[in-house]
Amino acid sequence: MRHAALTAIHLPDFGNPKTEPALSREIYAARLERLEKAMAAAGYDALVIYGDREHVANIAWSTGYDPRFEEAICVIVPGRKPTLFAGNEGYPYAECANGVFERVLWQPLSLMSQPRDKFRVLSDLLAEAGVKKGQRIGLAGWKGFESEDGVFDPQWFETPAYLVEALRAFGPVSNAALLFMDPSTGLRAINEVDQLACFEHAATLTSSAISRVINGTRPGMTEYESVSLMKLNGFPHSTHINMCAGPRARYGLPSPSMRVIEPGDPIVVGFGLMGALNCRAGFMVRDESELPPAIHDYVKKLVAPYFEAAVAWYETVGIGVTGGAIHDAVMSRLGDPFFGIGLNPGHLIHLDEWMHSPIRKGSTRKLASGMAIQCDIIPATGTDYFTSNIEDGIALLDDAGRRDFAVRYPEAWRRIEGRRAFMIETLGIRLKPEVLPFSNIAGWLPPFWLNPGMTMAMR
Tens digit of pLDDT for each residue in 106-123? Predict the structure, then answer.
């Protein structure tokens, strides 16, 4: 019977990008056609999308415009070119976007004390963009309210009150976030090959950065010095960097500080760029003998069963597999309350780190070709055993999609093939052909950061 064991393993160098994929104007035009069809199917006469710096994904998917200092609003009425409302700084910056839209300056989106000399009433601008009395209007922010059993409330808005009120003067308004974010039918749930290539690019950067931190961090360094090993290059972030050691590590999410890393510290690091995130956790020791005596069995009690659950995730995930099947494969190994699994064991990822998830208990939603998915299983033991973590992203692509990807993005495809070979042949993880690992550290779990050559594998 196969089991997880700590094994001496060399992590190969799968390479880093020498070229960068991009989304063409034609892709955005095709997205607009899909969006208008989805609007019609949902019964919307007009769609309004709100975005800001943190909540960029829906408006960026639609227009290629990612708000920087200001918020932004996009109005889509079938048969008309979309209208993008931007503030003083965003208006000129919008020329960089590759989407299909007309720009309108609406200064209330600008920061406080900036000029309002060209102010116009929002309702007038909405009308000029094609919104009419009596229309059924969808308003998409960045999420909505769902009950525990997954029922979505169309009258719960994650958007500014002024926008909801202005639109209600025209007609009935409902939350349209699921148009983009439904984990089965959402427009962002299924990605073009070009978008997946962008995500692979981002994941190569994030995973290589995490590898440098694990291989280079030593006691005596500050947390900031550890993070400096990432060699950040300016690619847009999707999350703050979470990195901490010692007492704060139990919380997982804190940013780094000047705290000096000490021998024996628990330690965690996570790094997210738009389209990718990687995270790892362990202890700043060479082996179990340097852990407190009460947790000398850290690998046996926590890391080994956790790795086996992650392997079950990788070996179960595939096109046509239900989210419930993946949940059960993981929780059959980590269901004991000791492991403290509180969140979904995996989710869809996009420009936002967590878009939605088809993976939950009893879910009959099926995974499909074109999905980008995170293996994200988080034990929170609340004990001295701390945690273990192996968060990486994959994509699912059918035969035709894989052929297309390989032809159009050969550099990225070579990395994917190398990662698959490493996971299958060295780590003993049996991947289906459609599972494409995007991370340069996919499946790599070193529990002891002062000895990263000792890694979990199936034997």
Answer: 999 999 999 999 999 999
Rounded-to-integer distance, Cα 94 and Cα 265, Å: 46
| Dihedral (Cα; 63, 67, 71, 77), 10-degree rounding | 0
What is the token pair recorded at 337?
Answer: 């309350």
What number of other Cβ atoms are within 10 A of residue 183's Cβ?
A: 23
> Does residue 1 have a pLDDT over 90?
no
C-beta atoms surrounding 23 within 10 Å: 18
CA angle 72, 374, 180 (to 5 degrees): 35
> Per-residue pLDDT for 325 more than 90?
yes
Residue 264: the pLDDT is 98
The two structure tokens encoding residue 366:
């099926």
Spatial neighbors of 86 by CB under 8 A, at least 6 apart, are 65, 67, 70, 72, 93, 94, 103, 104, 105, 106, 109
Domains of the chain and CATH, by start = 4-16+192-458 (3.90.230.10), 25-181 (3.40.350.10)
Q: What residues contact 374, with CB distance under 8 A and at least 6 apart?
A: 277, 346, 347, 348, 349, 354, 391, 392, 393
The residue among 129, 122, 131, 135 whose CA lies nearest residue 165 is 122
> What CA–CA distance (Å, rounded) separates 267 from 222?
12
3 state SS of 369 = coil
